[in-house]
Design a protein that fits this description.
The complex is a heterodimer. Chain A is an alpha/beta fold. Helices cover 31% and strands 25% of the residues of chain A. The longest helix of chain A is centred in the C-terminal third of the chain and has 18 residues. The radius of gyration of chain A is 19 Å and the shape is globular. Chain A starts with 12 loop residues before the first helix and ends with a strand. By secondary structure, chain B is mainly alpha-helical. The N terminus of chain B is likely disordered. Classes of the chains: A alpha/beta, B mainly alpha. Chains A and B meet through helix 3, strand 6 and helix 4 of A and helix 1, helix 10 and helix 11 of B.
């Protein structure tokens, strides 16, 4: 498990350059005089599933956007596999890193298949021999193959979310040519999904990280999903990190009460996975 | 049921004939044939009627006398080569230019209601050109400022550029451009341009006044070969260059952030769209005046036929725009022959109901 990194052990910049995985140091974001993120450190290895947790407005989405390079922090730095993030290398990064935003409806009446095909855009100059096959496989992977010819605007919120997930998977479907790992950053991919598809989605993502060595970082609200599927998690509150490490050790009832103001107790399901039950 | 595909193909009436992935190329082929047909048909229409069966002979004669200028020319040949043919070429260039400009704007604004006429790009170009016509003759009497000359095109280009950039900046919101602001800003710019041209008409001489009036309503009547060739080349270049923006514009439909994450150089893409639109709208407006609604109607119909992929929408809108302007202009010059209706009146008569229908459609509900 990816244990919490004590502040004293923070890597100096020189060795950060050789570090593989996603590494963020001392990220601070301010907007209109408010501090949205305050000195966040985070490290996620490829092949692992990391989850950002926290109440509404804690800064999870902001952090994900910063880590994706969509927003630059006031202070702090981010490396992806030893390479500092810039907007300049966005085109090269797009071939091995995909980002799923919260809610996304394209401007025009694209079919679900056309939306997934857009995920292959970064590879248009070096296409795979089986581009069409990749799109079909991504659609099947997210159980939306039967919706392929439907307009994305006519789908339900959950179906749309699965199509967008298929698009992000299609974007990083093949291993990178230079052997570096692929990355998936997802902002609440399960928010619009029903129970069945929430688990299918997280199963897919975990398989993805295990079998293909991809790094997966996602924002979740359901602590039990995090406990079941994540390798490590970070709990944010008011822009500050209040816990990080293996979910089972971080998500203790005391911390959950301190952050979310709900009483819980921990139980184990038959397979030994810890889950939290709401206590009245 | 496959409602979207049925909707798309149903309009074509060719549901069984058009296989899915190839639909775009079939639509382009059909539009190409339609363009050819309307070129042939409208070449016979006008105050000087020309029966279709005489067309090949006149065409052949017109070109042979062009290469062998000593030869005798008949009236039909003279009319055809000096008046009809440049007008047809200008119709194709203006229609193609406005059609592709509309498709580019809609892609850039991520919004099917953007149109160079509606949001004021055309009238911004016309105001700048009118300014040059009226005041230019005072300040730079030696510069030629007839319709379709390069100083006018340059002025119209800058007018269009300023308006496009201004409206884009104004309407940019968090998740895209805000349609309401875009259309309201367009109203303001159109009003300003109308007032400006009205003011200039007080200062204008009689000849300038005729030019200004012509400007507000649009007409292909002033087509001369020199101007026509320049506009034609600019329209051709724009259609060709726009094709390179097709896939990036598809990615931009997902939103700016997603386009960045897909590796699209978003800032460069936006700049290219704005420059190309201003260039082609400026050149067309400097030669023909304001022809509205082509940039709105053409991309929308192509999207219904071929789907929203810009690889088909951009060239398809150019072809359909050319067809629409050819037909509208044939109508304009025959309806009250030997007099002519201004072209802008006809495109507005067709375009306004279309626009109102579009406002009621599903697209507009997300405003």
């Amino acid at each position: 498990m990816n244990a919490r990194l004590p502040a004293s052990a923070l890597l100096p910049s020189s060795s950060a350059a050789q570090h593989s995985g996603l590494l963020a140091q001392a990220i601070t974001v301010q907007q209109h005089g408010r501090t949205l993120l305050d000195g966040i450190d985070l490290q996620l290895a490829a092949g692992q599933v990391g989850v950002l947790l926290g109440p509404n407005g804690a800064g999870k989405s902001t952090l994900l956007h910063v880590l994706g390079g969509l927003r630059s922090p006031q202070t702090g730095q981010i490396w992806l596999d030893g390479e500092a993030l810039h907007r300049r290398n966005a085109a090269a990064l797009a071939r091995r890193r995909a980002f799923l935003p919260q809610e996304l409806v394209p401007a025009f009446d694209f079919t679900a298949q056309e939306v997934v095909e857009l995920g292959r855009y970064p590879h248009r100059l070096q296409p795979q021999p089986d581009e069409e096959q990749i799109v079909r496989a991504a659609l099947e992977h997210c159980a939306v193959a039967h919706l392929a010819q439907r307009s994305i605007r006519e789908l339900s919120g959950g179906e749309r979310a699965r199509v967008q997930l298929a698009r992000t998977l299609a974007q990083v479907w093949c291993p990178s040519a230079d052997g570096r790992s692929n990355w998936l950053l997802l902002d609440e991919p399960t928010a619009a999904l029903d129970l069945q598809h929430q688990h299918a989605c997280l199963n897919t993502l975990r398989q993805w990280s295990r079998q293909r060595g991809a790094g997966v970082l996602l924002v979740l609200h359901d602590l039990n999903l995090a406990l079941r599927y994540a390798d490590c998690c970070w709990v944010l509150q008011d822009g500050r990190l209040v816990g990080s490490g293996a979910p089972a050790s971080v998500l203790q009832p005391e911390l959950v009460h301190a952050v979310w103001q709900v009483h819980t107790h921990a139980v184990r399901d038959p397979s030994g996975v810890e889950q939290l039950l709401l206590a009245p | 049921m496959n409602t979207l595909v049925m909707k798309r193909a149903g309009l074509a009436g060719l549901a069984g004939l058009l296989p899915g992935p190839r639909r775009g190329s079939w639509v382009l082929l059909g539009l190409g044939v339609a363009l050819l047909a309307s070129l042939i048909w409208s070449s016979g229409q006008g105050a000087f009627g020309l029966p279709l069966r005489e067309l090949p002979a006149v065409l052949a004669a017109a070109f042979t006398t062009y290469w062998w200028p000593g030869a005798e020319r008949s009236a039909a040949e003279l009319v055809f080569f000096n008046i009809r043919l440049p007008r047809l070429v200008l119709a194709v260039a203006a229609g193609a230019g406005l059609g592709v400009a509309g498709a580019l704007m809609q892609g850039l604004f991520r919004n099917p209601l953007a149109d160079p006429g509606l949001i004021g790009v055309s009238s911004g170009a016309a105001l700048a050109a009118a300014f040059a016509i009226v005041l230019g003759s005072l300040w730079w009497p030696e510069v030629p400022l007839a319709l379709g000359t390069w100083p006018l095109m340059l002025m119209a280009f800058f007018g269009g550029l300023v308006v496009t950039a201004l409206i884009y900046t104004l309407s940019l919101g968090d998740g895209g451009t805000r349609v309401g602001i875009m259309l309201l800003a367009g109203i303001a710019i159109n009003a300003l341009a109308g007032a400006g041209i009205g003011l200039l008409s007080y200062l204008a001489t009689d000849e300038q006044l005729r030019n200004l009036q012509f400007w507000m309503l649009g007409s292909l009547g002033g087509a001369l070969w020199e101007a026509v060739l320049v506009v034609g080349l600019i329209a051709l270049a724009t259609v060709a260059l726009a094709q390179r923006l097709a896939r990036p514009l598809n990615a931009l439909a997902l939103g700016e952030a997603q386009a960045v994450m897909l590796g699209v150089p978003v800032e460069r893409l936006k700049l290219a769209c704005i420059l190309l639109t201003a260039l082609v709208v400026g050149a067309v407006t400097a030669t023909t005046g304001i022809i509205g609604f082509i940039g709105l109607v053409a991309p929308h119909i192509v999207r219904l036929l071929a789907g929203p992929d810009h690889r088909w929408v951009l060239p398809g809108s150019a072809l359909l725009g050319a067809v629409l302007v050819l037909l509208a202009d044939a109508w304009a010059r025959t309806m009250i022959a030997p007099a002519e209706l201004p072209l802008g009146i006809i495109t507005a008569l067709v375009g306004v109901p279309f626009f109102l229908l579009l406002l009621r459609s599903a697209h507009a509900r997300t405003l």
